[in-house]
Amino acid sequence: MAAPEPQPAILICGLGKLGQACLRRLQGFDVALLAMDRHAPDWHDPELAHGLRAPVVIGDMRRAHHLRQAGATGARAVLLLSSESTVNLEAALQVRLLNPTAQIVVRASGEQRQLGDLLEQRLAGISVVDPVNLMRWALLQALRPGDAAARFDADGQALSVFEGVWQDRRFQRPLLLDQLSTGWLVAPLAFQGSQPSPGSPPADLAPSQVGRWRLRRPSWLRQPSWLRRPVLDQRSRRLGLLALALAVVVLIGIGHFAAGSSWQQGVFVTLALLKGEFVDPVNAVLGGRPLGSGGDTWLVGGTLLLSLLGTVLTSALVAVILERLLSARFGLTVKPRLPRGVQPILLVGGDGLADALSSELQREGYSVWEVDAQSPALEQAQRSLKRRGVLAIGMLSGDLLANVQGVLALQQCWPAARLAMVTSAEQAAEQLGELLGGVTVISSLSLAADVVVATAFGERVEGVWPIGEAMGLLVRYRVNPGDTLCGLTLARVQHGYGVTAIALKRPSRGDGLALPPVDLVLASGDQLLILATLAGLRRIELGQLQPPSQRLRLRLPRPLPDGRLFEVHRNLARYLGCSVEAAHGLQLGIQWQELAVDPDIAALLVDSLGRLGLDLELEPEAKLVP
């Protein structure tokens, strides 16, 4: 008997921290692993080397003969994980020439990210992973006020993950994730809370009907727009008073200097004084006569004060114009002044990551204050915001000790603020958060490793968040003929693999269906968006489908009319994902029949078959085998 052909391997190029973290995760996927690096790797765990099919190849990933020696020509996936983005991008082109079908995962960040995105769009099978950009999803959720663990968009529908009570089967779905306790739900943002807020739409409306409910109100019930405008803030009132005072001064000046002469002279003298001139306007008022009387003293003093006021106004106007022109010319930006009474979100360090977070948070309506991680800038921000307070603080520096120091200092200043910090450590991130107390610590290495491994198998990762004790990945699957998902109901996918179906897009309809019904059967061409951990993705890749965890016993206590019996078979076929003929083959009668079903399907069958007159018994739920 001939030996089975070995499965294509996954080649890891670059065995730094990220490469070794990916190697550790891939060892549980039952796939052959190869590796190469520029130098002999410094193993953080010596046991990792035993998981490789061959010794590490020492060479340059940009050279074709080194890639051939490492096995790139026959690999199913090649991970280019060097810390230098330019090296990874050059190697990606070389790998694509050697292996046209391999899935290529490229680590790229900074200025090279744009080139990586262009390659991803132009060349099939190339995915770009930016470890810094991945933290944006997790940090956004950590800094947002509220109790949601994750917020994301699923084919046009805004959803959130939160802890709560399962109340509405239509708009709430229990979250199935490894290492996650029960009580977590995913639902549209409009239906997250358990109790409707005052003025909210009725709970029985679909998310797409919320806006329609508001539009159906009669026009005479709507509040006039001018009543909904906010009252002018203190700064606007001050500017209004200043403009009014200036107008009064102009009118008084015109009336005074026009006395005994024409109003044209009053306008000329007043405007000349406000421009900052002095001699010519005074000569025009004197009319050529010499100074000497007591009234002339008051005239000279008044015109001098008015001229000084005009000089200040002219200088301020010139300064504003120059500041705008120079800012536009050199690309300088001025930190906007925060509205009075608004508590901002403070971002410390991070450079490009801070800019991306600031844009997202401002788009959602939050005020953001960005400062450098250096001590003087941070101390100035503390003094400026001490009385105002802050909603959340994000320590985004790459220096772990600087982040810890900043967190401890700012936590004393604003104890009620949400705190989040980043670190490159993988194993100690959770323990560090517990040690500091009340601080969300996000590991860029852990996030990047999970995304790289998920992408290595050809799936598209659209988000990653720490949810409770688990790391949730939002992954889009394309169902092809022969896939482990093809032909399964969504209930089987969820309970069999321990994942949560978020949205489904079918070729027959352009828009996606958020939180699709669990009795839908997946077919070739479908796009399924799921929320899963890396362990759930591994079970899907290996086809390790767990059996249903409940037993449903049913029987017909009495013969049913043919029409009702056909309805029974139709419901069985619908919820079990089989044909009506297969459901008819169960031979329902006075004897009890036992079906292995998932909890979601069991609830639907009990409801539908019970109304048709069947006797049903449901055994207690068994625990899912890990």
Strand content: 15-25%
What would you call the quaternary organization? single chain
By DSSP (H or I, 4+ residues per run), the number of helices equals 21
Q: End-to-end distance, in Å?
A: 34 Å
- The gyration radius over C-alpha positions equals 35 Å
Strands ordered across the widest β-sheet: 3-2-1-4-5-6
| Helical coverage, percent range | 40-55%
Summarize the biggest pleated sheet: 6 strands, parallel
Number of strands: 23
Principal-axis shape equals elongated
Instruction: Extract low-pLDDT stretches.
Output: 194-223, 225-232, 622-626
Provide mean pLDDT, rounded.
79
Q: What structural class do helix, strand and pairing data support? A: alpha/beta
Description:
The protein is α/β, with parallel strands linked by helices. It has 21 helices and 23 strands. Helix 5 crosses helix 16, helix 8 crosses helix 9 and helix 19 packs antiparallel against helix 21. The C terminus is likely disordered.
Write the layout of secondary structure elements.
Elements: E1 10-13, H1 17-26, E2 33-37, E3 57-58, H2 64-70, E4 77-80, H3 85-98, E5 103-107, H4 113-122, E6 126-129, H5 131-143, E7 150-154, E8 157-163, E9 173-174, E10 184-188, H6 210-215, H7 225-228, H8 234-257, H9 263-274, H10 279-286, H11 294-330, E11 345-348, H12 352-363, E12 368-371, H13 375-385, E13 392-395, H14 400-413, E14 418-423, H15 429-436, E15 439-443, H16 444-456, E16 460-467, E17 470-478, H17 490-497, E18 500-505, E19 513-514, E20 527-532, H18 534-542, E21 550-555, H19 562-576, H20 580-584, E22 593-597, H21 599-611, E23 615-618
